[in-house]
Amino acid sequence: MRIANFISFFVFFTITLAVPVPRLITRIHTAKPETVTNTYTTGTTTVTLPPVEIFISNGVTYTFTLSSEAARAPTTTTSVFNDASPTTSSQATSDNTAQPAQDSGSNQHAASSSDAGSPSAPQQSMPPSSSSPVQSTSQETSAESPSASSQVTPTSASSSSPVSSSSSSSQTSSQSSAQSSGSGDIPAPTAIAYSPYTNSGSCKDSSSIRSDLNLIKSKGVNKVRLYGTDCGLFDTILPMAKDMGFKVNQGLWISSQGVDSIDDALKQLINYGQKNGWDVFDFITVGNEAVNSGYVKVDDLISKIKSVKSQLKDAGYNGKITTSEPSGTFINNPSLCKSSGIDFVGINPHSYFDTMVSADQAGSFVVSQQSQVASACNHMDVMITETGYPSKGDTNGKNVPSQENQKEAIKSIIEKTHQQVTILTTHNDFWKDPGPHGIEQYFGAVELFS
């Protein structure tokens, strides 16, 4: 028995010496919370990654997540709403005060964001991307940004009453843009965004454009926002708009080619104004979400706005000039409103991108953004140059796109802004890319208005 035990011990000892013991190293790593600001909402999202165990054995590394996926859920902090109704600036909203945007100077469609952004985002001669829509951890392009294949101008909505310093497939128009269904019992906004494109992204014919403008007029809307200068703007759209009594928020679309991409469009605009007068224009917008889209740097846009303003003044234009961006762009870069020479601040707030805001709170959200930007910009007038709500797409927190919720959101926006707002957009825009949330094509809202 002793001999057997000795032999067993000898065999075990021999094997132990022959087989090296694995080298084990265990380390626990916990990532620091990351906070991201969403420029469409000015809210912040804090994402905390779960602890990770790193296990090393004989040169082989194994990584294990020590917590459940639930630990990855972001914590969102949103802006506090200011339900106070904004004070309308008579200067910015009067038709008599303001008078007279995307790809290169030729205004070709740009791919939809956001878009916000797209977002979207995202712009009628280059519609947003909205605005862009955007995920809680990324920026978006505006909800109106045209596709890259055909010549078009951006399409975002814009003509809202400003907050003053004292207050905080070619198809016809009906075919190319199916509208959201609705009872049509919501009061009309001051302005609505309009894109003269078919489903395939080509330009609509003059008959279809006239039909669209007649529909907009029949809803009691007297101002339209155009994002660019393509699709017969100077020969068709502007003459029709003038004959029908519209005021136009005319955009000069800045594309990914930078600030000089508007030069040809600016020359055409000046030529039109000198021959026909500037009275059809409500105001002129130099770029739509160009900074948010990464197309330009703030300093370059500031210089370009000053140059455009000087050229237009020399050409006889005495109206207002602005640029449109998500709220966060101005809050993070106040020099854009303080040093550019713009006559008021144009913002594109979209509540869909704030996961903590439901459709019925959209109006409170919009005026809150308006007040925050006014504060950041030395209490300049702030106009809502584009906002809206999708009727279809992905759920984003408390936001559930549907025709019912679109109606609820826009009703709230109209009430809180006292109709002084530009709504995105006239028709659903199937020429756009659906975007990361599948909402970019579904902002059509004209049928909601009485």
From TrEMBL:
Keywords: Cell wall, Glycosidase, Hydrolase, Secreted, Signal. Residues 73-109 have a biased composition (Polar residues). One of its GO terms (cellular component) is extracellular region. Residues 73-193 are annotated as: Disordered. GO terms for molecular function: glucan endo-1,3-beta-D-glucosidase activity. Belongs to the glycosyl hydrolase 17 family. This is Piso0_005154 protein. It comes from Pichia sorbitophila (strain ATCC MYA-4447 / BCRC 22081 / CBS 7064 / NBRC 10061 / NRRL Y-12695). The lineage of its organism: Eukaryota, Fungi, Dikarya, Ascomycota, Saccharomycotina.
